[in-house]
Amino acid sequence: MSRGARFAVGDAVRTREAPREGHTRLPRYLERRRGRVVAVHGDYPLADERARGEASEPRPLYGVMFDGAEVWGGAAQSPTTIVADLWEDYLEGA
Fold first, then answer.
1. 12-93 architecture in CATH?
2. Other C-beta atoms within 10 Å of 30: how many?
3. Of 21, 48, 70, 80, which has the fewest beta carbons less than 10 angstroms from its beta carbon?
4. pLDDT tens sequence across 19-55
């Protein structure tokens, strides 16, 4: 478990808006969506910074589960869930 993790398993979170330029590991279809933390993986360098050739301090990485209806609305088949590994930089409390 990450010593500096802001969120814990079971916490409700919302993703932030994805950056419009450059590399990001936050899929656009998950931006501004509500989910729940299902795992705290520990601290890892942020892939976005590394893709730009920048040094990256390790930061918390989480497994976040999203309900399909939250992501795709009525078009989602039930029951559908998505789990994405997302850095804390992409998340805020819901």
1. Roll (2.30)
2. 18
3. 21
4. 777 778 898 899 999 999 999 999 998 888 887 878 8
